[in-house]
Amino acid sequence: MTVKKILVLTVVVPVVLGVLGVGGYYGSQALMQNDAANNKDLEKFGLAVLPQSPNPQPTLSEKEQQAIYQQSTGVLGATQEVATFANDKLSPTQKVIKGLMSDKEQLVKDKEELSDEITQLKARIAELEEYKRLNEHFAPDKISEELTKVKARLKKYLLNSPSAARFNNRQIDIVSSASTVEYDKFIRRNRLILSDFQREELVNIYLPEFAFCLGDGVDIAANSAVEERDLVRFFETQDISLLKPALRQDLDTVLTPCQEALHEQLAKFTPGKS
Q: Is 274 helix (H, G, I), strand (E, B) or coil?
């Protein structure tokens, strides 16, 4: 090998090695910087999507999430660039995390919808239970038993009252039955379930005034014992065909003002406060 070749190799080899070394150095530095940037971006992304404390963070709305990927202006007027991880720049790992976050948000929405449905169903169940309770109370057998008790209590009250001594037994039957009819109309119209105390209040305070009012009128409307018996049957069955037209007209004349007075008094009755 000549001296010139040796010199050339002596010069060229270090230069090549130097170039490779410098290139390798800068290349490795660029790769390290790029890897560090990716790690930092991933760290930012993780901080954005993962909870920072034991306390759950509020879920961003779709509009708020979109705002993350839009350029905005800061408080001091500085331009804030678009977030690093726009949808088209996500790595596979970031896409997995974003997919999990989307699933979580959907689960939260589903949970809220189910909670609303449960609340509505509970309210509906409460309505149905109340409806069932009222229907059971106003079933023919039960309401019949209650009306029988009311009539018996009112009749006993009148028989023991000196003020009712002017009425004969048929007239007491008439006014007791008529008062029971008014009681029935009142509780059905207002869908009331009365306690024993409230029922006694109606029987001992409100209904006797009606009974005395009608009792005085029956003596005018019924001209014979036969017509009195017809009135007894009418108030027990509510069959208007049992009354002759003349008796029906006379009854309406004396019954209507007594009913109006009773209704005016019942308007003051407040079961919830009794």
A: coil
Q: At what angle do helices 245-266 and 207-221 cross, to 10 degrees?
A: 160
Pairing of strands 72-73, 79-80: antiparallel
- Enumerate the H helices of the chain as residue ranges: 3-49, 62-68, 92-137, 140-159, 169-190, 196-201, 207-221, 225-237, 245-266
Cβ-contact 242, 230 below 8 angstroms = yes
Q: What is the pLDDT of residues 208-230, one digit of tens each?
A: 999 999 999 998 899 899 999 99
Q: How many residues does the chain have?
A: 274
| Structural tokens at position 135 | 């229907």
Distance CA 230, CA 224 (A): 10
246-260 residue pLDDT tens: 999 999 999 999 999
pTM of this structure: 0.53
Q: State how far the Cα of 228 lies from the Cα of 171, in Å rounded to an integer.
A: 7
Retrieve residue 238's tokens: 């509510």
CA 59 to CA 108: how far, in whole Å? 9
Give the pLDDT confidence score for residue 195 in this predicted structure: 81
Q: Who wins on pLDDT, 59 or 213?
A: 213
Query: What is the pLDDT at residue 268?
Result: 84
Largest CA distance in the chain: 162
- Distance CA(113)–CA(48), nearest Å, equals 26
Q: End-to-end distance of the chain based on CA atoms, in angstroms?
A: 128
Structure-token pair, residue 94: 């970031």
Q: Which amino acid is at 53?
A: S
